[in-house]
Amino acid sequence: MGVVNITPDSFSDGGKFFEPQAAVAHARRLLEEGADILDIGGESSRPGAQPVSEVDELQRVLPVLSELRDVPVSVDTRRPAVMRAVLAVGASMINDIEALTTPGALEAVVGSDCAVCLMHKQGDPATMQQAPRYEQVVGEVKAFLSSRIAVCEKAGISRERIAIDPGFGFGKTLEHNLVLLKRLAELATLGVPVLAGWSRKSTLGVITGRPVSERLAASLAAALLAVQQGARILRVHDVGQTRDALAVLRALEKA
Ligand code: 7PM
């Protein structure tokens, strides 16, 4: 899954893809590099990001989405009205960091055949990194995702449509993120594909001491480790390089 940011305050791209045409061009490049699906978002979930109005979010996402009707596109949004609007113009997946807990979100997706990504987070983006606390992080994340799968199925969203995500960096310390990565296979036992997003994240900055522009090697290492623990979808900025790293893993599996 290739990340296409359309937010002017996007943390790793400096807002340079805000113009719809630039975002579409970036999306096309990620597809050429081997992305199977693109994740586009008009509201930054970065801690401390400026809130974006619903109208602004739609004005950012819809022009890009309508240029990408021929390819699988996931839309990163928490708003039911945005979900309905993007599904009406052909979005393939809703990537919701709230795991469809917002009132009206389940109803917004149930009538379509889109895929959904249910992500775990603790707290809200503005404050979630201040003091994340868990008794047992893997058990709590797994129980939350399991209950959201059950709620979705009860609402009429079949399992085949669902992916789950522990939400690396979303209300998690370095240690929480590492335990979740080490034991990611335990989430895979829930029986739906696991999505992992480590690309360029600040946890990798803590581990390596490097700024966001220098986290490619660490991102590739984390991506491979996630796949070794059962991840099926990788949310990444650097699609071509991730493809190459995965090719080495695949070659090893065949040997
Ligand atoms: C700070 C925290 C800055 C997170 C930027 C981010 C994920 C996501 C994002 C993820 C799913 C980023 C992120 N991360 N959706 N959206 N899983 N499903 O690195 O890990 O772009 S935003």
Description of the structure:
The protein is α/β, with parallel strands linked by helices and 255 residues long. It has a single domain (2-254), classed as Dihydropteroate synthase-like (TIM Barrel). 44% of the residues lie in helices and 11% in strands. The protein contains 10 helices and 8 strands. It has helices at 20-32, 54-67, 80-88, 105-110, 137-155, 174-182, 184-188, 202-208, 216-228, 239-254, and strands at residues 2-5, 38-41, 73-76, 93-96, 115-119, 162-165, 195-196, 233-234. The protein has a 6-stranded parallel beta sheet with strand order 1-2-3-4-5-6, covered by helices on one side. It has a two-stranded parallel ribbon with strand order 7-8. Strand 3 (73-76), helix 3 and strand 4 form a beta-alpha-beta unit. Helix 2 (54-67) packs parallel to helix 3 (80-88) and helix 9 (216-228) packs parallel to helix 10. It is globular and about 40 Å long. It starts with a strand and ends with a helix. The model has no long low-confidence stretch (mean pLDDT 93). Ligand 7PM is lined by residues 3, 11, 45-47, 76, 95, 97, 117, 119, 165, 167-169, 195, 197, 199, 201, 235.
Order of helices and strands: EHEHEHEHEHEHHEHHEH
What number of domains? 1
Distance between the termini: 26 Å
Structural class: alpha/beta
* Spatial strand arrangement across the major sheet: 1-2-3-4-5-6
Strand content: 5-15%
* CATH class categorisation: Alpha Beta
User: What is the β-strand count?
Assistant: 8
Fraction of residues in helices? 40-55%
Distinct small molecules: ligand 7PM
> Would you tell me the overall average pLDDT?
93
